[in-house]
Amino acid sequence: MIHKFLSNDKDTVKKNTFFPFPVASMSPETGLEYGVAALYSFYLDKLDTVTRVSTINIMATHTTHNQSKAKIVSDIWSRDNKYHYSSELRYWDFPYSFYGIGANTWKSDKESINEKRVRLTFAADKRVASHYYLGLQTGFEYFKNEGTDPAGIYSANSYFGKSGGKRIYFGLRQSYDTRDKVTYTNNGLYGNLQVNYTPDFFSGQQYTGWQMTFDGRYFKSLSDKVVLAFNGVYEGIYGSTVPFYLLSQLGGENIMRGYYQGRFRDQNMAAFQTELKYRFVPRFAIVGFGGGGTVFGDQPLTIHHFKPNYGAGIRYFFDLNKDLSLRIDYGFGEKRAGEGRLSGFYFSMDEAF
């Protein structure tokens, strides 16, 4: 069994694989986080040599700060990659720290918010031209928030939709994709643009308006072991009144690693990052990364608004045939006056981008 997970030999047959494993991480916001995860990978057509690998990702965790979350995420590719389907079901019962709105919040204003959240999404894309996909998507989200300190920054302010809400949205999506692989990409270009509309379905302090996201990526092999990768993202939400629970958040395990997700939030988020990956043996790689990003409202955006991030990580490839990996990263962010440098530890499946 140990030889199987350390061997550099690839299987000659396209096999379905199920890989369960325990997960654990630690941060000031969660304490010790522990749980189980599993990745099921398969091909819808094992005879077609170009069909990409499909995956179903399952994870459930709990923390010593009494936070829980669970997810089931699927990424399905049809024969010859003509159709692409993706879905996610996520649940959070996750008290988190709120510091205010904008790019200049302070640790001294922190208030804990009890949040329960559900997200269900589905998207379907069809290749309509060489490397170009056009698709539709829909989703449902439910939020319930409650402050814990009557004198705190959250409880004492009248943020629109602060107690939560729900929405159903519909959208269009398009992407251009020349990546050689979707798991551990060596070469290629990827761009995805999504526009969603949320109609006025529910009463109360609910949101009606438009939301746009863009995700662009470029990969270039510098040698047979070294890959240079670039990524830029943008999120914007537009409407006469944007509720608290839909504001864009900076940070997380995929973009701006080192920043607690939600430490900075506003109507828009823009970020970029680069990674240099060295896969010194087939089973393992080391990665260095860096970038910058910010959140903003209606004010003009300049390069001086961007906050830095940098860090390093390790990759373990548990399936060499499909290049499926486990990821460990440690990221650093800015050091604000009177505060320690922001940082974060991340354990996840698959690449950051």
Describe this structure in words.
It comes from Arachidicoccus ginsenosidivorans. This is Polymerase. This protein has 353 residues and is an all-beta fold. It has one domain: Porin, CATH 2.40.160. Helix content is 1%, strand content 59%. It has one helix at residues 2-6, and strands at residues 17-27, 31-42, 54-63, 68-77, 83-93, 96-98, 111-129, 132-147, 164-177, 188-198, 209-221, 226-238, 248-249, 265-266, 268-281, 284-296, 307-319, 324-335, 341-349. The protein has a 17-stranded antiparallel sheet that branches. A two-stranded antiparallel ribbon has the order 13-14. The longest helix has 5 residues, at 2-6. The radius of gyration is 21 Å and the shape is globular.
Oligomeric state of shown chains: single chain
Number of helices: 1
Report the CATH C-level class.
Mainly Beta
The helix content is under 10%
Main sheet? 17 strands, antiparallel
Q: Total strand count, please? A: 19
Topology readout:
Layout lengths: L1 H5 L10 E11 L3 E12 L11 E10 L4 E10 L5 E11 L2 E3 L12 E19 L2 E16 L16 E14 L10 E11 L10 E13 L4 E13 L9 E2 L15 E2 L1 E14 L2 E13 L10 E13 L4 E12 L5 E9 L4
Protein name: Polymerase
Organism: Arachidicoccus ginsenosidivorans
